Amino acid sequence: MKTITQDQLIETILNSKGSLAVSFKTQTDPKMKKTGNPFLDRKIMKISKIGGLIGFDYGNAVNNQAKRENTNQGFTAQERRTRIV
User: Of the candidates 29, 33, 10, 5, which has an alpha carbon nearest to the alpha carbon of residue 20?
Assistant: First the structure.
């Protein structure tokens, strides 16, 4: 896996055409707020990994697959619902 800087990531995303597969690995210091936490006085690192696609157009992908299958190509994706947390 290639490690790049934040500036290199931004440049890669801005210069890419179509979709781009990405994965991230982060290391952070977790908050140790739980009462009676046995790890409170230890050096703990939280490691998270996530992957996804940038620039992926679902409607375009469905219509491209329909074209390959010689079927109806008039699909239009609905807007994503916003989730308020």
Answer: 10
Model pLDDT for residues 33-62, shown as the tens digit of each residue: 777 888 888 888 999 999 998 888 889 889
Predicted confidence (pLDDT) per residue in 13-33, tens digit: 888 888 888 888 888 888 887
Residue 28 gets the label, from left (phi > 0), alpha (psi -120 to 50) or beta, of beta
Tell me if 51 sits within 8 A of 22, measured CB to CB: yes
Nearest to 10 by CA among 25, 22, 26: 22
pTM: 0.54
